[in-house]
Write a structure and sequence with these properties.
39% helix; 5-stranded mixed β-sheet
Length: 152
């Protein structure tokens, strides 16, 4: 059974250890550049978004848990004016992928958000992340725009 719970300060380093290299790989895949530069950018972006780690006000960082073990992370923020949640990062750790845990985690999130009066979930998915596109489409998400970039 999949549950979501807030990440603890002690668990935050494990999240950062996953997040920075994963985000850096996404930066390189989608925008080019060197891995070293992307790692630096990813670390800076994480520090900008989560300056107080797990205790950053306004940022919600959850552990995805299956039978007591952390199997992934969900990072989002709420916008009360639009009654929406924006997922900033969602990741099921590789040994647990392909087993329906992502679908179950998003269903759990949806139930929690509905009970809080949230009426929409928004997110951005990298163009080259085909697995995420398939998952989100299967769960009823639809495109609302296209991000574009040009390297000079």
């Amino acid at each position: 059974m999949i549950t979501l719970r807030p990440i603890t300060a002690d668990e935050f380093p494990a999240f950062a250890a996953y997040f920075v290299p994963d985000y850096a790989a996404e930066i390189v895949a989608n925008y080019g550049g060197t891995l070293a530069d992307a790692l630096s950018q990813a670390a800076q972006d994480m520090n900008d978004d989560l300056p107080k780690g797990a205790d950053t006000p306004g940022e919600i960082l959850m552990c995805i848990v299956n039978t007591g073990a952390v199997i992934g992370y969900l990072f989002y923020t709420l916008n009360s004016a639009t009654k929406s949640a924006f997922i900033k990062d969602f990741h099921v750790l590789p040994p647990h992928q392909g087993k329906g845990h992502g679908t179950a985690a998003l269903a759990c999130l949806q139930d929690q958000l509905k009970s809080q009066g949230i009426t929409q979930i928004r997110l951005r998915v990298a163009a080259k992340n085909a697995a995420a596109h398939r998952l989100y489409t299967k769960l009823g998400f639809f495109p609302t725009g296209i991000n574009m970039a040009k390297t000079l």
